[in-house]
Amino acid sequence: MTVDNDAMEAVRERLSALAGQPPLRHSKIGQANPAALALAVPHRIFTLGVGELVDGTPIEQARPVAQGFLVLDGIVPIANAEVTLVGGFITVSEGPFVEALRRAIDLVDGPAVGVTSEVRVLRLPEVQVVALWLHQAGGPGDVLVPLAPTPKEIDAYRPYRPEELSAALAVVAGRHRDPPPRSGG
User: Fold this and answer.
1) Dist CA 146 CA 101 (whole Å)
2) d(Cα 143, Cα 165) in Å, to the nearest integer?
3) What pLDDT, on a 0 to 100 scale, did the predictor assign at position 173?
4) Would you state the CATH architecture of domain 5-177?
5) Element (H, E) at 68
């Protein structure tokens, strides 16, 4: 994958502005020394809608929506930063996604991730699923690892082939698109 240098520079500028700021002193970014911050694991973020999942649209047809990076303080992941492809909006978050993504990367290959595959993230907000996606261009096949938490039909941190995860997502998406009728009055 080609890293968007403009996106990377924009994120670095945003992080430098946030690091060490008094209003953020209780956050990891606020406590960080701007000089110690680094960006790692560049990845594109893709999405599909509920209707597409129910209709069986292959995961490989997901649309790119953002460029993402893990933010490191030294060697420790402390945040995730994203730049939207449309509008160039930058978001920085320190939530559970950071640890979940690190855990998934360690699970599937650790340091080799991104060397033999393109690191992607599949985000499906309507069904509340996020997955690490290792894309193998011309290789043995893609692997997706859903991050915790997941719906009951999907096992967090279990590697899936795209068609296997698509089938489970179609069930979850069908439930979200067509919720069961409410009883009572």
Assistant:
1) 9
2) 9
3) 83
4) Roll (3.10)
5) strand 63-73
d(CA 177, CA 171): 10
CA distance 133 to 147: 11
The 10s digit of each residue's pLDDT in 128-142 is 999 999 998 766 689
pTM above 0.90, yes or no: no
Kindly give the residue spans of alpha helices, DSSP state H, lying in 19-95: 28-31, 50-54
Angle at 143 between CA 140 and CA 147, to 5 degrees: 170
The span from the CA of 179 to the CA of 185, in Å, is 17
Task: Give buried/exposed letters for 55-83 (b at 16+ CB in 10 A, else e).
Answer: eebebeebeebbbbbbbbbeeebbbbbbb
Alpha helices in the chain (DSSP H): 5-18, 28-31, 50-54, 96-108, 162-177
- Span 43-71, pLDDT tens digits: 999 999 888 888 888 898 999 999 999 99
Q: Among 111, 153, 163, 101, which residue's Cα sits nearest to residue 131?
A: 101
Please calculate the CA angle 161-166-168 and round it to the nearest 5 degrees.
100
